[in-house]
Design a protein that fits this description.
globular; transmembrane helix; about 0% strand
Length: about 300
Amino acid sequence: MKAFSAESWRARLVRLPPLAWLTAFFLVPFLITLKISLSDAATAMPPYLPVLDWQGGREGWASFLEALDFENYAVLWFDTFYRDAALSSLAYAGAASLVLVLLGTPLAYALARAPARGQPLLVALVVVPFWTSFLVRVYAWIAILKPEGLLNAGLIRLGLIAQPLEILNTPAAVVIGLVYAYLPFMVLPLYAVMSRLDGSLREAAADLGAGPVRVFWSVTLPLAAPGIAAGALLCFIPMIGEFIIPDLLGGSDTLMLGRVLWGEFFSNRDWPLASAVAVLLLLIVIGPVLLFRGAGREAAQ
């Protein structure tokens, strides 16, 4: 009994640091954001009301709770602007995630099948973009995609087009930027899964007469499906709230929740409504995570 008690206490102590970390850096900030989202905008500091008076006692708490309301969430529900922003964010993130799966899967497969001696170098080449500032890399795409940029100059010189293409400040530019920025996040987890696959399964399929393409579709791809789902989810979640890429590459007409959130905080100075948008963004993100966990449990059973 004592051994069991000591073991249970050790298990609790092991779980304590991550729980404390999540509480301090996720739960507490979320509760603060949730409280602000139930407040009203005000020309004051802080720019919202009510503010809890810790010395007000029970009456202070009562008046504080009575002043909270769901007005900002009603605005999000009835105003089509925010609904369109949420749908647009999902569309951009979904399209970019699909492209990432189509590009990242064969790239990760090529890395996993490369000679063992060369794999560290190839993985390093995938990670190299992280050595440069994210903002600088996005600005570089402006120089590539603008009408007089490198891409149009190269296509004209090759005779493929007669007039420069209008790519910058379009949805295509946003998707290109998202795919470029998040491709390593798709390749690395998928490479980790594919590099651990049992090679004897591919050999067995080949011995049974399956060609390389059939082996990939029938053996490698099903076994790597959890890695594909994890990589797509790892990219999809941050892309929903992306701000820099749609702001620099998409132009003023690009509507995404990240830009809406920035505008409400820093342009309109409406912290309560911006906090409500942040809570909405979190709820949208939780959905794919729960679906992925449910699928993982079903696969484990």
